[in-house]
Structure formats: C-alpha cells, structure tokens
Amino acid sequence: MGERILLIEDEEKLARMVELELRYEGYEVEKAFDGRKGLELALDGGFDLVLLDIMLPALSGMEVLRRLRRESQVPVIMLTARDTVVDKVTGLDMGADDYVTKPFAIEELLARIRAALRKRPARAAEESAPLLTVGPLTMDTERHEVAVNGQQVALTRREFDLLHCLLEHKEKVLTREALLDQVWGFDFAGETNAVDVYIRFLRSKLDEQFGIKLIHTVRGVGYTIREEEHP
Prior knowledge:
Blueprint: E1 4-8, H1 12-24, E2 28-32, H2 35-44, E3 49-53, H3 61-68, E4 76-80, H4 85-93, E5 98-101, H5 106-118, H6 120-128, E6 132-134, E7 137-140, E8 145-148, E9 151-153, H7 157-168, E10 174-175, H8 176-184, H9 193-210, E11 215-218, E12 222-225
Parallel strand pairs: 1-2, 1-3, 3-4, 4-5
Antiparallel strand pairs: 6-7, 7-8, 8-9, 10-12, 11-12
Helix pairs in contact: 2-3, 7-8, 7-9
C-alpha cells in the first residue's frame, strides 16, 4: 500500500487531475471538496500528507489549517492561486510545511510532496533527542516546548524547527541556504529572505521579549545561536 494523501480542493476537475497523477505515482488518495468535510477527514487521521487549497467553501484553507494544527502535525502543503509574500508567510507561520502556487506543473507538486514526506523521519527523531539548552533557553523536543528562565514561549511549528536546527548546531554558523535545506526540506531557490523573516520572529519572541541576545548574525555568512557574551 502506498502513502495516503488527502486532497482538499473545490475545483473538481483539478482535483480529479491531481488524483489521477498521484495514483499513477503509487499514492492512495481521498478527496474533499469543501473545508468542513476536509477538516473532518483530516482529523480522523490515517493520512501521511494533506494537500490543502486556501480558497474553499464552508471553511477557508487557513481556518482548516489552524484547527488541524491544534490536534495533528501531519505534513500540509497549501495550494493557492495567490502569490504574495503575506499569504506564503501566513500559511507557513500557521504550520504549513510548504505551498504551491496555481497553476502548477504536476512535476513540481510531486517534488514538494516527496520533500515533505522525507522530513517525517527527522521529526520522529526529534522525539528521542535530549533536552537542548543555550543560556537561559531550554527546548524539550519530546514535549515540543520551549522555555526561557522557566517561562514557556509559544512558537509556531516553523519557528520551533528553525530554533531546533540552530540549537543542534549551537555555536556553529549556519548559512541561509543550509537553514533552508534543513528546516524547509527543499531548495527554496533564491528565497533566502524567508530565513530572515523567521529569524526576526524568533528574536521578537526570545531575545526582545526576555532582554537576552542568543541569536547572532554573522554578516555575509548566516546565523548562529550561542550564550550572550558579557564584557
């Protein structure tokens, strides 16, 4: 049996075309044509990945994603006719793993699906990793929790993954390209500014919120996390 994919897409002709291509590649596919039914199926579980359109009747794709992430960490790829940075960042910040802009080539969608599915073992490995710390910051990878001086910090999934990557390579400088590859799981092809956006998110929630400086920029190279240096 192949991996199971849930396709939530209200354009029935497009959904049928994508379903046929996925089945040809060996995936099992189930479809939903509105957000409410799609969410119901997704929450029932059993899927390895969800393809989720943003513009849906009954419930929008963003709302489906928001409710799904309360209970499930199944990989989600957003399908959208929009191509603005705001929509991309919003979807990723709410917990989507990737996005594909319509109209898309089926080869691109298949590549994104393979990349998202490949990331699952890495996430499973997180659960057996020990506690990660730097200065007053502690990450519990099993509980998926982050705290500074014992105070919990709410992070999105993408922020958590980025911080986890930095902590795993504590005191080593990681390039934007390396962070894209390890956190996003595929080559973002020139969109390294996505790393800068999420570094700003992390600094806002950690460094600025608690008056510390853990995430450092190495000009012309990338980013590193290390304990604050005192004169």
